[in-house]
Write a structure and sequence with these properties.
The chain contains eight helices and eight strands; from the N terminus they run αααββαααββαβββαβ. It is of the alpha+beta class.
Length: 227
Amino acid sequence: MANKTIEDYLKAIYQVDVDQDGAGTTELAERLGIAPASVTGMLKKLAAQDLVTYTRYQGVGLTNAGRAIALDVLRRHRLAERYLADVLGLPWDRVHDEAEEWEHVLSDDVAARMDAALGWPSTDPHGEPIPSARGDVPPLADTPLARLRPRHTARVARVSSEDAEFLRYLGSMGIYPHVALTVLTIAPFGGPLTIEVSGQCHAIGQGVAERIFVVDISPLPAAEEPA
């Protein structure tokens, strides 16, 4: 097992790449809360260990070895989040910080037993996929809420955020994985979206809508269109 710092970097590279279709030092620095210069130095060390491919000004990618470690860490992290939520009853805005510690200490045996005890869940409490013990991850087939058009309905698949305050904000509107919602209007020039969730209307910014991913998108039947 790699040390904690290496695991954190490889996991962050994987997540930034998935979220933004490519990982650069600026994005990694923001996710890790570390100065870009420090990130650059660490990426060179990881490249020397054949865990990443790194070219200055062109971003960073994971090698097969680096990807295997990243997915193993993500598996332990997301299983821990699911266990904390389903068994211990922690709200979804608290499980991430706890799982940050668990991901570095769970053995493969304990992770496997946890997986079985939970009934082999496919996602964590935020809807993110849990990698299998072999490192398999189902392809994501969702779309950012921000890309929907007015009078379209969809179901929340996942929320791409680890920020507790952000998750509490979504929870206050009843926005969780599997919840259905409808886009009513979109203000021009990058303005907010008005959405309906469980019969309640809410206005959310474009930045928020970019971090909510949805599936089962369909136009609202004519008879149900808002006036």
